[in-house]
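Internal ticket #5521
Category: modeling
Description: The requester needs a full-assembly model to guide mutagenesis choices. All entity lines are attached below as received. Residue total reported by intake: 481.
Assigned to: D.W.
Attached entities:
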Amino acid sequence: MLDAHIVKRRARFVVDAEIRIAAGEACALFGASGAGKSTILACIAGVEAPDAGHVTLDHRTLFPPQLALHRRSIGYLTQVANLFPHLRVGENVRFGLSNGAVATSDAWVAQLQDRLELRAIWDAPAHAISGGQARRVALARMLARRPQLVLLDEPFAGLDRHLVRALLLAIAEWQRALGFTMLIVDHEADVLERLCPRAIAIEDGRIVQDGPWRALYESPATPLLAGLLAPL
Amino acid sequence: MWKRVGASAFALALLYPLAGLLVPIGPWRWGNGSATLDAVRVSLVLTAVAMAVVVAAGTPMALYVTRATPRERIVWQGILLLSVLLPPLALGILISLAFGPHALGALLDRAGLKMANTPLAFVVTQVYVSIGYYVLGAIAALGTVPRSLEAQAALLGADSWAVFRRVTFPLARLGLAVALSLAWVRALTEFGAVIVTAYYPAGMPVAIWTSLENFGLPAVMPLLVVFLAAALPLPWLAHIAAARRATDA
């Protein structure tokens, strides 16, 4: 279970949000650009330190004090793939497997390789592949370690529609099969709806609504949220 | 084409002082053959030891400064600049005094460590004259590695050492090689500070000076050639190795 209370001062407002997600649950963090969604994710991941609050994952305290990143079982994927450019694709995917005890297998890596269509580029230098390929490699690298918690920050931004569809299917399947807890940020509701039955709506760093998508559509808590959910 | 001509003209101008080797000053001669070889050995071995200290102490410092807040970084960089701005002769005098019998030298002396005219004094002086150059260069090199990549590596389970070894160092190695080669050249060619703290054992710069004093210009020229031949390969190879690995990656 993820239990997080993030307090973080930003330029325009203070992010102050409490989020609880059951183990194995998939939850969406939804809101307009600049609402503080990515800040919440970065603080839970540990790449930013909250000013106050707490973060626990399956009763393990991640903050405070700030637990070292390598001791967290968290997969964190942003719209920047952050591949290691000096390594090949395969070396990127296997990067996390040699660090500490990781319950994974060659069969699992092979499955990621096949499902994400990485076989053809497996030996290519990471700096020489396309943006869409890099995003697939980053997803494989993150999942190869089988993290307890997966944090996705607009992972599909800028990708072709057919690729987004394939990735959504794959992530949904793996989430069910592996049972990891998942929190996804995006400002496109249709993407999030595919993966998460539950949505948390954020405005200016605060939670304005938390519940199933249907409740958000039927009675949005704020005019801004209603506008974000309205069809074009 | 014209750019290459321009670069060639620049290189010619840069190396023009070497034309001095062709000026007729009478037949070249070895002032003291065995002393020359000793000086080459002293310079290469002790500078290598000094560089090991520079890298071991300077790299963590450079990493720390790179990761510090901008305000703190400015303070550290000022301190590092101060160390490289000191005129070598003045630095040599200050080292002699600071490690002399009225200061730290008394303690070192009791521990059996002599800080005047010994290999230890030679190495300590070389470390002092070169470490600032290495650290400043290393800060610039390490600063080019995106923090997000290091964070990603840590989230993939790599501890601090593994992040440095597997991500930071490979991405910064070309810049670190440049920083190390500058420090190497700075230490190897040091004369002003070393002549104060460690006239013995004589390294190449001091050997060139004593040859000039004792035997005149004809004895200096062959030493210069030996000096260049001995000093150039290591930093050059460091550049080649770093560039090759970067290309492979």
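Resolution: model delivered.
Comment from assignee: The longest helix of chain B spans residues 33-67.
Ticket closed.
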